[in-house]
Amino acid sequence: MALTEVYWDHHIPLPKLAPAQAKVTVALVALLCFINSYDGEFVFDDSEAIVNNKDLRPATPLNNIWSNDFWGSNLSSNSSHKSYRPLTVLTFRLNYLVAGGLHPVGFHVLNIVLHAVVSALMNDVFAILIGGLDHDEQGRTLNHAPKTSLLAAIFFAAHPIHTESGVNAAFDVLLICNVNVYELSQRLLLRKNPLDVNEVLRSGLLTRLALMALGGLSMLYARWRIMGTGPPAFTEVDNPASFEENVFLRIVNYNYYYSLNAWLLLCPWWLCFDWSMGCVPLIKSATDWRMVWLLLLWCVLIGLTSQALCSQDSQRRRTLTLGLVLLVVPFLPACNIFFRVGFVIAERVLYLSSAGFCLLLAFALGHCFHRWFRYRRLLCVLVLALLCVHVVRCALRSHQWRSEQSLFISALSVCPLNAKVHYNVGKNLADRGNSSAAVSYYREAVRLHPTYVHAMNNLGNILKEKNELVEAEQLLSKAVSIQPDFAAAWMNLGIVQNSLQKFEEAEQSYWNAIRFRRKYPDCYYNLGRLYADQNRHIDALNAWRNATVLKPDHSLAWNNMVILLDNTGNLGQAELIGREALKLLPNDHTIMFSLANVLGKLQKYKESEGFFLHALRINPNAASCHGNLAVLYHRWGKLELAKKHYELSLKLDPEAPGTRDNYNMLRRKLDQLKRSAP
């Protein structure tokens, strides 16, 4: 254990702060970097991990958290990604309860505060890793590297890689059991002074390592039992290198991915929310110039490892060893060695690794100040500039994460070959009502990835709305030929074929959609529309009834049943269906409107009036509702009220069909009544 200050520490141009002051400083830096994103939206994966995750809802049993994955799917399911993070989901659920719903501010503020707290605590962690674990006479932990630990913690707090929001054994070996790595390596590699087994046993090292190994294996076994034996199902676009048949090229590309991760730690300027789908082209031969980067990475790692093992400087050995362990070990689950992962690069997995990088960076800067003391001012300027760049980059990246629009657009310059980036930009534009602009991005996504069925489906939908039905049919047909179980594409193909009056093909497409997704209320609804167009009224009613069974709040299906029964003269049945629907949807003004029409034809004028007025209280600017209420009053003999609502309807929609004729008829009748009055 260290008993003196680390020799390079006093050369670092930072004030020697008290422990509390250092923590506050680091926390403030973390807040400064990320506070501008506190009021951002839910973006990207938040929609599945939070917004659509039923495990966050109070109505969902709490036990589900322990058997479901991060996205709310059962871990035993073949569709599960096996990302098991129950404690994270539990914090989401608590946030939901405290905030009273899905309010992004609460989630973002909690994340920012957590990062600030972690960064502040990292000051103590770095102090122990660099200067060793030591205490004064009163039992307080001593910091033998106050400036180096502060510098490392500040870099950790301000590292832009954090925007996307095995170590214990090394700590135990080096600091608790106080193993001399240099002496151990000399004995094992050079066979100097053979290792004394009794000495090792007396140190308690083997016992402690055995206990940690047993604990680790127990956790792995528990997780294996919870997750099931089946591995997650990933596709080639998620992680292309893992599907490379040539073993040599697969290993080369894995190592290239490692070098890219290292580059993101070293220069976190090019950051992207998703690195799949062609963002990183595969290395196909040993002559690819990118081979230089992975060779450089291994040269640096080997150099650092040799210094960590063979340096005669004990402080250097400890700092480098723990820095490398903290850099490499947390990254191992994401390195494709033990199992295939579902991503090329994921910035979130570098959170702990960045701590090791910051420790190594602070160590390197400390040595620079120690060795080149005469250039102290220049080094101070460079370090300050580096910190400022990190803070600015953090603030910029946080701002980009405030909304999906800015996040997705920021990725276009980083990964222009990524089809998913273009797809997400297009989807965001379409969701905001700019379908025309979305078309070009969807087309580019399909061009970059010709089998991208989701892009084809969304592009086909937009072309359908623009009445470009032939091309829409071609795209959707291609999508289902590539992925035959794509239920949504089958349904959309059916809608297009129905519009093209290809009724038999449309019906078959709808049934294909239902075959691949049995509980598909929207498909039953569209199937009902097809049957209604063909005057197959019973089939239409059955299809819409199926839709309401699967989704009791399917307003369109309920309303269409009432309208069809009304149009076919089945007024009594239409009334029953309308009342049944309003029990489930008591504030649905469209169903109130349809039921009011039925009641009016049944001469139940008072009830009909009540439903019309209730519907107008919910949607006061519905011209058709004013017009039909006027017709009701006209039949009922309440002519002044009829006149009032005819005028309101014409004011809202001067071209309302039939309303002006009815209004003119009423005016003639009122004029006749005035002339005949005594």
Automatic annotation (TrEMBL):
Question: In the record, what terms sit under GO molecular function?
Answer: dolichyl-phosphate-mannose-protein mannosyltransferase activity
What class does this enzyme belong to in the EC scheme?
transferase
Which domain of life does the protein's organism represent?
Answer: Eukaryota
Which InterPro entries does this one have? O-mannosyl-transferase_TMTC, TMTC_DUF1736, TPR-like_helical_dom_sf, TPR_rpt
Q: Looking at the UniProt record for this protein, which Gene Ontology cellular component terms does it annotate, in alphabetical order? A: endoplasmic reticulum; membrane
Q: Name one GO biological process term.
A: endoplasmic reticulum unfolded protein response
Query: How does the record classify its membrane topology?
Result: Multi-pass membrane protein
Q: Where in the cell is it found?
A: Endoplasmic reticulum; Membrane
Pathway of action: Protein modification; protein glycosylation
Q: Which EC numbers does the record give? A: 2.4.1.109
Task: Indicate yes or no for the key word Nucleotidyltransferase.
Answer: no
Keywords noted in UniProt: Endoplasmic reticulum, Membrane, Repeat, TPR repeat, Transferase, Transmembrane, Transmembrane helix
* Family annotation (Pfam families): TMTC_DUF1736, TPR_16, TPR_17, TPR_19
Q: Which residues form the DUF1736 domain?
A: 230-302
At which residues are the TPR repeats?
419-452, 453-486, 487-520, 521-554, 623-656
Where are the bilayer-spanning segments?
254-271, 291-310, 322-343, 349-366, 378-396
Family listed: Belongs to the TMTC family.
Q: What is this protein called?
A: dolichyl-phosphate-mannose--protein mannosyltransferase
Gene name of this polypeptide:
tmtc4
